[in-house]
Amino acid sequence: MRPAATTGAAAVGAPSAPASQRAGQPSLDAGGQSATALVGGIRAGRPILAATAVLLAALVIGISIGPADLSLGTMARSLVEHLPWHPDTGVAPLDAAIVWQIRLPRVLLGALVGATLAGGGAAYQGVFRNPLADPYLLGVAAGAGLGATAIIVSGASLALLPAAAFAGAAAAVVLTYALGAHARRLGDDTGLVGGAGPGTGAGTASILLAGIAVAALFTAAQTFLQQQHTQNLQVIYGWILGGLTGATWSQIALIFPYVALAAAVLLAHRRLLDVLRIGEAEAGSLGVNVPRLRLVVVVAATVGVAAAVSVSGLIGFVGIIVPHAVRLTTGHSYRIVLPVSMIGGAAFVVLADAAARILLAPAEIPLGVITAAAGAPFFLFVLRSRRARQGVA
Amino acid sequence: MIAAEHLKVAFGSNVALASVSLRVAAGEWVALIGPNGAGKTTLLRAIARMIRADGNLVIAGRPVTSLSHRKLAALIAYIPQHPVLPSELTGGDYVLLGRTPHIGWFGTESATDRRICAELMARMGLAQMAQRQLGSLSGGETQRLVLARALAQQAPILLLDEPTSALDLGNRVDALELVDELRRERSLTVLSAIHDLTLAGQFADRLVLLAQGQIAAAGEPTAVLREDVLSRAFGAGVRVLRTDDGELAVHSRRRRV
User: Fold this and answer.
1) pLDDT at B159 (0 to 100)
2) Subunit contact B170:A17, Cβ cutoff 8 A
3) Fewest C-beta atoms under 10 Å: which of B110, B122, B127, B221?
4) Mutating which of B41, B119, B147, B161 best tests the A interface, going by the most A Cβ atoms within 10 A?
C-alpha cells in the first residue's frame, strides 16, 4: 500500500501532497514559504475597526436623543467648548449644559457598563468553557442586589449604594470560590464531584455549582429584606431592573479605575483563553497554569462587573448576547471575541438606553427590559442569517 | 529520559497505579500495553504531571518537582486519547497552540513560531490543512494535526495515549510510521499506550505490560508477546503467531469453539 519507511527521509506526504513534499526532506523554500503565509495567526484588526465604527455611530445617536431638540451642530459645538483654547462657539449655556452634564455622562457610563458586562461575559465563557456562562454566574448579581437592598431598606444615604452593591457582589464571588475549592478538595478525596482528578472539568463543575448555591442564598436574603420593607419596593425594583437614569461624571470617575483595570487584565489574557479552548487538561500539558489563569480572569471580570452593576443596577443579557453575536459574525478566537465584545457591548448598551429613553417618552423604560427584549430577537436574527449563509456556501 | 520509581496514584480508595517503576532511555520507543483499566493512561498522565502521583519522577535528569509547568511542557509533549478539537479552529492555529510553552504568559506568537509550525506542517504534508477548520477534517487528518501540534512543542519526549484508536487499518500504520520517522529524524523519546498488541510489537523497541496497576511483564516484544503472559494479563485465550517476515501477530481465541 505504501513504501516501507526505513529512514527519516522516507515518504510521509498525504496522497494528495505535491511531489516536492513527498520526496523526503521537502523543499521548504517553496512549500515552507507558502505555508508560513498560511499559518498566519489570528488577525483582529478589521473586526475591531468595524466595531469601533458602530460604537462611534451609537455614541452620536445616544447624545442626539433627548427631550430637548438639539441639532448635531449644537452638540458638536457644546463639546468643542470643553477643549482647551477653544474658539467662541456661541452655544446657549443651557444647551451646552444639557449635552455636557446630562447626555454625555449618561452615554459614556452606558458605554463603560456595556463594555464591562460584555467583556466579562466573554471572559467567563472562556474560562469556564461554557457558552451559557454570563457575568452574573458566580453570584455577582445576587450579591450586588443584596447589598443595594440592604442600603435602601436601612434608610442610609443612597450615596452608599454603589459601595454596598460592590461589596455584596465581591462577597458573593469570594464565597462561591471558597465553597467551590472546598467542594473540589472533598471531590478529589471522595470522587463525589467530577471524574478522575483535575483536568476533567471537576474544578469548574464544583465552582459553577457553588455559584448556583451562593446566588440562591443571597437572593433568598434579598427577597426576605424586600418583603419586610414593602414601602421601598419600587426603589429596590427600579435598581434591580437596571438603568442609567441620572448618570453623572462622578459615577464615571468612581467606576473607571475598576473597569479599566478589568479590561486591561482580561485583554492581556486573550491568547491564554484561546489555549484553554482545547480543554483544561491539554492547556495544562502545554504549560498553562490553569487554576491560576482561572483565578486571575475571574477576579478581574468580577471586579469590573461589580463596579459596573454598582452604578447601573442589574442590566441583564448583555454578557451573553454580545459575545455570542461577535462569535457568530466574526470568529471564535478570544483575541477577536474579547476586544470586539467590549466595543460591541458598549455600542449595544448605548443604543438600548437610547431606545429606553424614546420609546415611551417622556417616561423611561428600565434598561434591563430593553436589553432583554431587544437582545433575544437580535440573537435569533444573527443565528438565522448565519445559518442561511452556511446553507448557500 | 524518563526515570520513574515507585509511582503510586490513587483516586480516593481506588488504587490506579500500585507501584510502578519504569525507565525510558533517550531515543527509545516504549509501548504500554494491557487490558482496559490497567493503568496505562494513568501512568502517562502521572508522568506528564497532569495528576498527582507519589514516588520519584526524573525527567531529562531533573526531578519533576523542580520544574515549572512551562519547563515541563518544553520537555514533554502529551497527546491524549481524545484531544479536544474546537471545530471552528483552523489547522494552522491549532498547530500554533503547540508553541505555548515557548511563549510568555502575556506574549504572542512570533514570526519564528509561525515559521516553525509552517515548516513542520509542510514536512508532514499538512500545508493544505493550515486554513481548513478542524470540523471539516477526517479522523486521519486530525490525527496528523494533533501530532504536528505536539511536535511544535519541540519537546524531546512524546507521550501518546492510544494514538491509533480512532483510525482505520491503513491510517493506523501510516500514523505510527510517521511517529517512527519523526522520532528518528528528531531523536525523540516516545512512550505510548497502544491497544493493538500486534502494532505495539511492530513499532516499539520495548513493551511494558500493565495489569491491575502493576507491571506484569517488560522487555523486548518477543519476551512480552507470549501466549502465557498475555493470557494471564488479559484473562482471555491468546495465540501468538509468527508471520512469514518474522513479525509477531497476536490473535484472540473465542471462548467456546
Assistant:
1) 96
2) no
3) B110
4) B119
Q: Which three cell numbers stand for residue B35?
A: 487490558
What's the CA gap between A374 and B179, in Å, rounded?
A: 53
Contact A278 B73 (CB under 8 A): no
Tell me the per-residue pLDDT of A369-383, one tens digit each, with 9 for 90 and over: 899 888 778 778 777
Closest CA to A62 of A355, A375, A370, A342: A355
Sign of the four-CA dihedral A376, A116, A315, A173: positive
Residue B209: strand pairing partners: B33, B217
ipTM of the prediction: 0.89
Please tell me the distance from the alpha carbon of residue A303 to that of residue A356, in angstroms, as a whole number: 27
Distance (Å) from the C-alpha of residue A33 to the closest C-alpha of chain B? 8
Q: Which domains does chain B have, with CATH numbers?
A: 2-82+158-252 (3.40.50.300)
CA atoms within 13 A on the CB side of B41: 13
Q: Shortest CB distance from B69 goes to which of A2, A196, A284?
A: A284
CA A213, A214, A215, A221 torsion: positive or negative?
positive
Q: Give pLDDT, residue A11.
A: 37
> pLDDT tens, A45-99?
899 999 999 999 999 999 988 777 778 888 888 888 777 777 777 778 888 888 8
Which residues lie below 8 Å from residue A77, measured CB to CB, with a gap of 6+?
A89, A90, A91
| DSSP for residue A100 | I
Closest CA to A298 of A152, A174, A165, A168: A174
The label of the residue with cell 458605554 reads A111
Strand, coil or helix: A204? helix
3-state SS of A205-243 is HHHHHHHHHHHHHHHHHHHHHHHHCHHHHHHHHHHHHCC
- How does pLDDT run across A227-276, given as a tens digit for each residue? 998 888 888 888 888 888 888 999 999 999 999 999 999 999 999 999 99
- Mutation pick from A21, A38, A297, A333 vs chain B, by most beta carbons of B within 10 Å, is A38
Of the listed ranges A188-197, B25-34, B55-64, the one predicted with least confidence: A188-197
Interval B223-240: pLDDT, tens: 999 999 999 998 888 889
Q: Which residues of B touch A20 (CB under 8 A)?
A: none
What are the chain B neighbours of A194 within 8 Å (beta carbons)?
A: none
Contacts of A28 in chain B (CB under 8 A): 119, 122-123
Closest Cα of chain B to A11: distance in Å?
Answer: 9
Instruction: Give domain limits for chain A.
Output: 48-55+132-387
d(CA A263, CA A246): 25
Fold of A48-55+132-387: ABC transporter involved in vitamin B12 uptake, BtuC (1.10.3470)
Q: Residue B206 forms beta bridges with which residues?
A: B30
Nearest residue on chain A to B95, alpha-carbon basis: A39
Which residue from B minimizes the CA distance to A334?
A: B89
Residue of B200, B233, B198 whose CA lies nearest to B215: B233
Pairwise CA distance, residues B51 & B7, whole Å: 11
- The whole-angstrom separation of Cα B166 and Cα B189 is 23
Please tell me the predicted confidence (pLDDT) of residue A241.
83
